[in-house]
Amino acid sequence: MNKTYRKTANLVLGYLELRFINLHKEAEIAEKERALWASELESKIEADRITQLNIVKACDLWADINTNGYPPTIDQFVGCLRKVSFANIPALPVSDDQVDYLALWESADDQTKKRFFIDHVFSKVPPYLRVMFIDYMKQHHGWTHTECKKMINYHAQPFNGAERGAYVTHQREIIAYFARKVA
After folding, report:
1. How far is Cα 160 from Cα 85, in angstroms, rounded to an integer?
2. What is each CA distance from 106 to 62, 109, 124, 168, in whole angstroms?
3. Given this model, what pLDDT does residue 136 score?
4. Residue 135: what pLDDT?
5. pLDDT of amino acid 1
6. Total Cβ atoms within 10 A of residue 104
7. pLDDT at 97 over 70
């Protein structure tokens, strides 16, 4: 058994004894319980999830769930620990196909630059290209900042919980706006 998990089990059980009803176990039983907790923690949870802050959060979560004042079992504690120590994931999925948007922008003609954010989803395009798009459209076509943002947000969700029909309507309104502007 890993010494780190033994120390962690001591920390967890010490905090649980302070936080919840203390059952005053004999020293031999308490030692067996600590060994059991250490082995269970080692087998059921990753080491990077067991921090002092996460232990406190897991105990607080258990106190919110269970109002009788008794400490959690090992499995209940591990469940709470997993809930409070979630793994960080990227906000946007990383795709395997890397598109060189800068090369696309630089090689595009004027008409393609106008349609750049219709052809490419804004969340995949690097932020510096959004700035370049705004600068180009202001300089060469007299668009306002609001109009540029409208075109950039062509693929954006029009409102929270929008369905497919709302996306289509949103995109049609943008195309109609710029068709009127050109005419």
Report:
1. 28
2. 56, 8, 17, 29
3. 93
4. 93
5. 55
6. 16
7. no
Banded model confidence at residue 96, pLDDT cuts 50, 70, 90 = low
Q: Which range among 42-46, 91-95, 120-124, 145-149 has the greatest average pLDDT?
A: 145-149
Beta carbons within 10 angstroms of residue 152's beta carbon: 18
pLDDT for residue 18? 72
Query: Rounded to whole angstroms, how far apart are CA atoms 22 and 27?
Result: 14
Query: DSSP assignment of the chain, as one string?
Result: --HHHHHHHHHHHHHHHHHS------HHHHHHHHHHHHHHHHHHS-GGG--HHHHHHHHHHHHHH--S-PPP-HHHHHHHHHHHSPPP--SSPPPSS---HHHHHHH--HHHHHTHHHHS-TTTS-HHHHHHHHHHHHHHH---HHHHHHHHGGGS-SSTT--HHHHHHHHHHHHHHHHHHH-
- Give the phi and the psi of residue 47 in degrees, each rounded to 5: -65, -35
In the block, tokens 């800068």 appear at 102
b/e per residue 36-72 (b: at least 16 CB within 10 A):
ebbbbbbeebeeebbeeebbebbbebbeeeeeeeebb
Q: Assess whether pLDDT exceeds 70 at residue 180.
A: yes
Nearest CA among 144, 138, 150 for reference residue 175: 150
Owner of token pair 């109609």: 176
